[in-house]
Design a protein that fits this description.
seven-stranded mixed sheet, globular, five-stranded mixed sheet, alpha/beta
Length: about 575
Amino acid sequence: MSDDRTREIADGRTTLGIELGSTRIKACLVGEDLTVIASGSHEWENEFVDGRWTYPLAAVETGVRAAYAALVADLQAQHGTVPTTFRAVGVSAMMHGYLPFDADGELLVPFRTWRNTSTGPAAAALSDALGFNIPLRWSIAHLYQAVLDDEQHVAQTTGITTLAGYVHRQLTGQDVLGVGDASGVFPIDPATGDYDARMLDTAQDLIGVPDLRALLPEVRVAGQDAGHLTPAGAAWLDPTGTLQPGAPLCPPEGDAGTGMVATNAVAQRTGNVSVGTSIFAMVVLERALSTPHEELDVVTTPAGDAVAMVHCNNGASEIGSWARVFGRFAEAAGTPTDADTVFRTLLDEAATADPDAGGLLAVNYLAGEPVTGVEDGRPLLLRAPDARFTLGNLVRAELMGAFATLAIGMEVLHAEGVAVDRMTAHGGLFRTPGLPQRQLAAALRVPVALEATASEGGAWGIAVLAAYLEHAADTSLAEYLDTTVFGSAASDVVDPDQRDVDGFTAYLDRFRAALPIQAIAAGVTTTPGATTTPGATTTTGEPTTAAEPGLQAERDSSADAHQQEQDVN
């Protein structure tokens, strides 16, 4: 196999996927059989600058190059060769956010990521005018908020895009987006696979820009041509000059879309859950929702089918923080333990804890949470004097707290009569088998599957979308995934256990009742005008860079995204 792989690499028959998540940039190379041959990664963190979460574009370039260089080094070590070209290339990144450029291609303000929740007035006005829920983090909300705030850069803006769109443009010179990523910029009409024309007219009148459509990237669905690697793009990715131009690129996608691909969840009545810094669920719809819901984003699959998305700003970060505390305790006690072992030990302890966490309550809100109407988040651990305060219950409470807001959002889908046969989970949290999958099934009250390929994450998912370029003329994306990609893949499915369901229901009642405490906690832990120090809480209720999650099991999420992403994106 090694000689065969070496020839594949040398002949340019491999496919490259790159994904920019919220804590890690990953490059993934797959063979003709879509098996991962090599990978490389680069860790990075967002920065809190002038009241906004951002990543400098210089860090984007440095990070992508570093991840690609690490992949090349892996190939050299394993196979004694390096690639000069690829069968196809794909780029994915955490969704949403705001990157406005002028006519010379210069970024006008620092990249505003999905974590920024300062667009409330714009999102509310757009949602009301369009009759369609516009979330705070969508690009159109950021643009309109800049107009409302009379920001000078708006007059100079000739185009906006997402992080994936920016990297794709560096590689190809093409200003395009995959339809899934574009659906986080502006609403998509599933009938046309393009921006909704009626809503464009309405939004243009509201926002007051001369030509709103001209500011938005062109939309492409999975399998459509999205340009080729240019000489400048090859040099941008690989400054050594080894990589040659010419490889085709698939449309750039968001981490939500690549997560759907990585979990084979692009067909109707399927869905997936991605857990990382944020947590979100995607369900492919059979029909349109009866009315807009603040708790739900309507986005699309990479093929353009409508998807209901429950996106929660707060995911596994607080669990990661507790794991670091216990990891440091083990180190201080003279028994240093790697992060994955710490995580596994804690979750194993929680597996036999009380189903309702013994009366403990954990709120994982490091940031504001639109799903529950919380503006400023504060992580909390609450217990009554008679609660059973054990290690297992503490960890179980934190795990249920990570799923609680998602469960609240999913209740809206249940009320709409949306049917889901099963959800597929992915993200670093599920590297520890058992309780996380079981608890998610109880929280959502549907079977939860883990695919063997899900751990490969969004970089693998975008590589699969790139490989699909050669098959799009003959088969749909759903059929391609079912037959070619997942035909023989193993999956582990867990049904909801009634004892876990009852325990989570009791826990969720306590969680809802405690939400008003968030405003009180934010008020007593924020000093107006105070200078933020590393590791301290900011006035927006979000952690500073130094407080960002650093646990490996969390960084391995697809998404931070979300993710994301697996940033998240």
